[in-house]
Amino acid sequence: MIAPSLPRLILSASLATIATLLTSAAPITQDPCATLGGLNTTELTYDAVANCYRAFTYNSEIATKTLATVRTIFNDYYIFRDSALTPDLQAPFSSAPVDIMNVLDLIGQKKYQSDYEFHNDIYKAVQSLHDAHAGYSVNCYNAYLFAQPLNLYAPVVDGKQSMRVFVDLARRGYEDCEVTTIDGVDALSYISKWSDSLSYSKDSGVRQNQALATQIFNYESEEFILSSGEFAERATLPENPYVDYVLQCGTTADPIKLRENWRVLPLTGKGFSNMDTYLSNVCYPPKPTEQPSNMYKRELDQPVKRQLFPVARKSALLDATPSPSTLPAQGLAQAVQMGHGNATVWYTLKDKPNVGVIVVSTHVAEDAELDVALQGLELFSKANVTNIIIDFQGNTGGSVAFASFLVQLFFPSTGQLDTSLRSDLRVTKSIQDLSTAAFNVSEAGLYDAAGYIDLGTKQLYTNDDLFLQSVPLTRNGRETGYTESTTLQPAILPKIEALASYPWTNQPNNIRILSDGRCGSACALSAHYLHGKYNVTAYSIGGVRGDNLSIFSFAGGAVSALHDINKIYAANKVVSPMEDLPYEGDIRVPILEVYADSTDVPLEYDASKYPANYRMDFTPENARSRDVMWTQVATHAWN
Ligand SMILES: *[C@@H]1O[C@H](CO)[C@@H](O)[C@H](O)[C@H]1NC(C)=O
Ligand SMILES: *[C@@H]1O[C@H](CO)[C@@H](O)[C@H](O)[C@H]1NC(C)=O
Ligand SMILES: *[C@@H]1O[C@H](CO)[C@@H](O)[C@H](O)[C@H]1NC(C)=O
Ligand SMILES: *[C@@H]1O[C@H](CO)[C@@H](O)[C@H](O)[C@H]1NC(C)=O
Ligand SMILES: *[C@@H]1O[C@H](CO)[C@@H](O)[C@H](O)[C@H]1NC(C)=O
Ligand SMILES: *[C@@H]1O[C@H](CO)[C@@H](O)[C@H](O)[C@H]1NC(C)=O
C-alpha cells in the first residue's frame, strides 16, 4: 500500500493545467474531475475525489426529476411510510420517528449549491429510517471506496468495554492497543454517535456492530477472514480527509497519535477525463441496449427469490495487503469443519463432540443448499451430535423460501400455514391497475395476487380481489389503503423421514441461535421463527455492554427496487407513476410487511420480538476465533 504523495498530486494537477493551456485558448479553468481521472489507482486521494464530487453545481432539472420519483416511491409503495412515525420505540430499539415525506419536502425547498449535497441529503434522509431495506444511492457519488488501515472493535477486557484495534492493515502491530480518542472525542462515544448514521438497524448496539470490524466466512479460502465494518470502509465520501486517533498500547507506554488518511479504491471500471465525461460515463445510465430481462419469471415450484444489499464483504484492503502476518484465525483450533455449501458451513466442537455448529452466512442460496443441509444434519447424527448452534452473524438475507426451509429442517411443518407470516402491501389506484394487468402472469413480482393465500379460504387467490378491495388502516394518525391480510404462497419442504430420527428435531432445548444482531431480512425471518415461534434460546454478541441486543434487524418483509417495479409496469403495459432516476443508481423500499402471530404491530417495528435471551461480550479471544465463541455458548447452554 503506497500512501498517495502530495508532490505527485500537484504534478498531475499542473500537467492537467498545461494540457488545458495547450488545447484551448480559454482562460485556465480547473476541472477537478480531469485531475481525478488522470490519477492511477495507487495515486487516488480523498481530496481528488471530493473535489470532483463537489464540482457539479446544483442542477434543478435533475433535482426535480429525482425528487419526484423518490417522493412517489416513498409515498405510494413504501410499506412503513406511516409506521416510521412511531414515537418512543421500546428498547432494544433506539431510533427516532421519521416523517419521510416531510423530510423530502424540506429537501425540495432547500437551496443547494452543489448537486452532491442534494443527493447526499436524500441518501441521509433514507438512512435515518434505520431500515436496511430502504436505500438510495447514485453511482455518481458512490464511485470510490474509502478505507482506513486501522480496523476497530469494542471488546470487554477486565469488565470494561473499550475501543481497540482489531487489525492494523498497515502492519505496525497496533493490534489490541486501546483507541482512547477519535478526532479528539472519547472513542466509544465517537463510534456510538457515528454509527447512528447507519441505516442497518433500529438497535444502536447492532449499528455499532455494523460500524466495527468482524470476521466473515470466506468460501474460497474456507476460513474466517476480516470484514472491516462500515466505519473503516465505505462507499460514501467521509466527513474529513483523515481520521485522528490516539492509541494507548499497554499501560506504561506513551500515547501514540496517528493521523490516518483514507486509502481510496475505485468502485467502477469507468474511465473519464473531465467533468463532462464523468457525468456521461459514471453518473448517467448507459444507453439502453440490453435485452428486456425476464428475472421476474416465476417458476411454479419455486417462489420468487428476493435479495438484498448491503452484503457483508471482505475487507478491500486485504487484497492490497499481501499475506498480512497479523491477520487473525488461520483455521480454528477447537472445531472440525465437516463441510460447506455456498451459504452454510458445518463444524463440530473438538472438546464437546456432541455439539454441532451451522454457520448460515447468507440466505442467498440455491435449492442445492438444501442437499448440503440434509447431508450436514446426517453427518451430525452419525457423529452423535445432539445439540446444535446456528450462527447467523453478519447474514444480510436472501431467499424467503430458504428462510422457511431452514426452519423446517428443525421444526418440520405440520400444517399449510405454519411456515408463513401474515402480511400486507400498500394499495393505490396505480397499484390496482398494475395488479389487474399482472394477475397470474410471469412478470408480476409481488403484484400478482395469484401468488398469495386468501386467509379466508386458505387457498391461493383466484382473482385480483386482494388488491382491488383496499382496506384503510390508520397508523400514527394517518390513514391509507393496504391490502387485506394475506400471506405469500408458503414454501413447504416435502416430508423428510430422516428428520424425525434426529435428537434435536422439534427440541428447542437442543438448539441455540448465535447472532450479532446483523441477521437481516430473510435471515431475520428464520431467526424470528426459531426464537419467537419455536422458543429457541438466542445469544447475541457485541453491541453495548449493559444493554440488551437484538437477534435480528430489518425483518420488514420483502423489498423491491425502483428498477424492478418499473420493469413490472413495463412488462404489463401499465404506465408507471415513477420515471427512472436521471442518474444511474437505485432506490429500494420494503413493499410488503410481515407480522408476528397475534399482533397488529408490523414485525419491523415490534421491538418486543427482537432482544436475545443473552448478550455476550466480544473479547480479544472470541472475536478472533469463532470456535472460542461457540464453546462459550455451548458451555452456557448445555453444561
Ligand atoms: C501508478 O502509479 C505508481 C506510483 O507512481 C506507478 O508505480 C505505476 O507504474 C502507475 N501505474 C500505472 C498503470 O500507470
Ligand atoms: C455453489 O456455487 C457453484 C458455482 O456457482 C455451483 O456450481 C454449485 O452448484 C453451488 N452449490 C450449491 C450447494 O448451491
Ligand atoms: C456414536 O455412538 C455410538 C453408540 O454409542 C458409538 O458406537 C459410535 O462409535 C459413536 N460414534 C462416534 C463418531 O463417536
Ligand atoms: C394461472 O395460470 C395457469 C397457467 O398459466 C393456469 O393453469 C391457472 O389456472 C391460472 N390461475 C388462475 C387463478 O387463473
Ligand atoms: C421457552 O423456553 C424456556 C427456556 O427453555 C422455557 O422456560 C419456557 O417455558 C418456554 N416457553 C414456551 C412457550 O415453550
Ligand atoms: C433487557 O431485557 C430484559 C427482559 O426484557 C429486561 O428485564 C431488562 O430490563 C432489559 N435491560 C435493559 C438494560 O434494557
From TrEMBL:
Pfam families given in the database record: PDZ_CPAF_rel (PF23658)
Keyword terms: Signal
Record field: transmembrane: none
Annotated signal peptide: 1-25
Domain of life of the native organism: Eukaryota
Limits of the CPAF-like PDZ domain: 146-252
Gene3D superfamilies, alphabetized: 2-enoyl-CoA Hydratase, Chain A, domain 1 (3.90.226.10)
InterPro entries named in the record: ClpP/crotonase-like_dom_sf (IPR029045), PDZ_CPAF-rel (IPR056186), S41A_metabolite_peptidase (IPR052766)
Protein name stated in the entry: CPAF-like PDZ domain-containing protein
Organism encoding this protein: Dissophora globulifera
Highest classification ranks of the organism: Eukaryota, Fungi, Fungi incertae sedis, Mucoromycota, Mortierellomycotina
